[in-house]
Amino acid sequence: MAAHPLDDATGARYTRASGLMTGTLVFRRVRPIDPAAGLESAEEMDVVVEGGRITRIGRDAAANLVGAERGVRFVERPGAWLLPGLVDLHAHLREPGAEGKEDIASGLRAAAAGGFVDVCCMPNTRPVNDSRAITEMLIAKARAQNGARLHPVGAITVGQKGQELAEMADMREGGAVAVSDDGRCVTNSQVMRRALEYAATFDLTVIQHAEDHALTEGAQMHEGAVSSRLGLRGWPRVAEDVIVARDLLLTEYVGARYHVAHLSTEGAVRLLREAKSRGISATAEVTPHHLLLTDEAIGLYDAACKVNPPLREARDVEALRGALADGTIDCVATDHAPHGVLDKEVELAEAAPGIVGLELCVPLLLGLVRQGVLPLSRLVTSLTTAPARIAGIDPPSLREGACADLVLIDPAAHWTIEATRMKSKSTNTPFLGKKVQGRVLMTLCEGRSLHEDWEA
Ligand SMILES: [Zn+2]
Prior knowledge:
Structural class: alpha/beta
Helix content: 25-40%
Radius of gyration: 21 Å
Shape: globular
Distance between the termini: 39 Å
Bound molecules: zinc ion
Strand content: 15-25%
């Protein structure tokens, strides 16, 4: 991977601090998994963290520390996996403007509880993050939390109105890692062309919320047999597909970095696969809910399942799973979208779309690994190096000398998803009450413990 142009810059981009943690932490006999570092074995190893960095990885690498001096903390959990800290390319932390649903502090706590150490936050706040000032304010607030690192995504257009390009250069200087009008689609082809051209000059990825709004007006769910049965206005697949098709053509024409947010349709998978086969610089993400649920889940008008883009059909889910497994879809992103009870416990037509995702991503997707749908190494890559590369941030890594950004997971732990144990201010998820297997035990960022949960 080529070095990112800003990696060595002194700008506001959220770079890692050095040596915040001074003690020694030893993970005894864990299973390190980091495909990018060649660690995929089931072999138990020790991982030693000193001064905020990983200093040793290997069989019995910590043997000489056992029974040694005070000041060494041992974490021993037979069978537990140690992964690089996770990266979320797409989260809504609601600050500024809707802090009752989530704010940077609670959002970053939720992220840590889910194993995430890097969180990219979307700009559709109030006001919209379309400026360097807001970008810098978000980063400053996050730094004060001393938690997971926050990476703002700036707006593509001023106010996300889809017309005038925002000052991408300034936002980039302020620390923005990508641009997106997420929540709204850049539908005007000329604006999109200019956005791709302009962003490319700074090597910024343009993240598109692919939705032809003219085709989805008044829509409440996916357009198909279920919407017909329920008598609800549908959001057809083609509303996503036409935008992805156009954007891929524009990306090829101008040469740029293009990324499809929350890709949800079989057709968009096909288009992306074809574009990638021709070397077009396009990437995509998929959310846990689009990988796990279909439009049937909306059942009796369940607003918890209302999301944008909507839950699709079984054939879409199958296509998304296959595309994530074979790398056509590059990464998983949570699209963490907190909403309060007042936004959800209303008529479906009035309900706000969105599902919280940061804390439940790993336990939910480990189910797909156990079912043989998704190789574990692909899941790890899709939550670490792949999203980091798209955002141009250093991926957390399980290598000696790397910053200690780590997540410890017990893949065998059974538990039930409950609102009361969530760190997010909002608990809008259709997965409440679901029994899952696999739990984040500990999240370390720059050697600091951000989250621990040792209950069996
Ligand atoms: Zn979106």
